[in-house]
Amino acid sequence: MKAVVYEGPRQVSTKDVPDAKIERPTDVLVRVTTTNICGSDLHMYEGRTSFEVGRTFGHENMGEVIEVGSGVEKVRVGDRVVLPFNISCGFCKNCERGLTNYCLTTQPDPSAAGAAYGFADMGPYGGGQAELLRVPFGDHNALRLGEDAEEKENDYVMLSDIFPTGYHATEMAGVIPGDSVVIAGAGPVGLMAALSATIKGAAKVMVVDRHPDRLALAEQIGAIAIDDSKTDPVQAVLDETMGLGADRGCECVGYQAHDPQGNEDTAATLNMLINSVRFTGGIGTVGVFVPQDPGAKGELAKQGKAAIDFGTHWFKGQTMGNGQAPVKKYNRQLRDLIAAGKATPSWIVSHEISLDQAADAYKNFDSRSKGWTKVLIKPGM
Ligand code: NAD
Ligand code: ZN
Question: ipTM of the assembly?
Answer without folding.
Answer: 0.98
